[in-house]
From TrEMBL:
This is Polyhydroxyalkanoate synthesis regulator. Residues 100-126 are annotated as: Disordered. InterPro entries: PhaF_PhaI (IPR008769). It comes from the Bacteria.
């Protein structure tokens, strides 16, 4: 195999973005130039596709971990945190219902009525 092709294979994310058609074309070019035996081309394409799939999976895992870390850093609650809080609220609501209470923001407190000034007449200035 050519050094250029070996370098392309060794690139970390290179194969994650290369299509099967492009890999097949490159391998066919190697066969035409005599750098690869025709019988080895199919096996090489399959190995390169497998490696690309592995690298893509690793790349997704790295991205997922980074996004999770950033969300934790900025204080976004995780799905399990939200689920836990929902369960706690459900338990508290059930206990309140058993006691015959309905949740209120402030017992016996009603908002003060809004005072609306009378409309202005003609050219009056406040």
């Amino acid at each position: 195999m050519s050094d250029l092709f070996k370098k392309a294979i060794s690139l970390g994310l290179g194969l994650t973005v290369v299509s099967k058609e492009k890999i097949e074309k490159t391998v066919d070019d190697l066969v035409k130039r005599g750098e690869l035996a025709p019988g080895e081309s199919k096996a090489l394409v399959e190995r390169l596709m497998e490696r690309g799939d592995e690298e893509q999976s690793q790349f997704k895992k790295i991205i997922h971990e980074q996004v999770k870390r950033v969300l934790q850093e900025v204080g976004v609650p995780s799905e399990s945190d939200v689920t836990s809080l929902e369960q706690r609220v459900a338990v508290l609501e059930k206990k309140l219902a058993e006691l015959g209470h309905t949740p209120q923001l402030q017992p016996d407190a009603s908002p003060a009525p809004l005072e609306v000034p009378p409309p202005l007449k003609g050219n009056e200035i406040e």
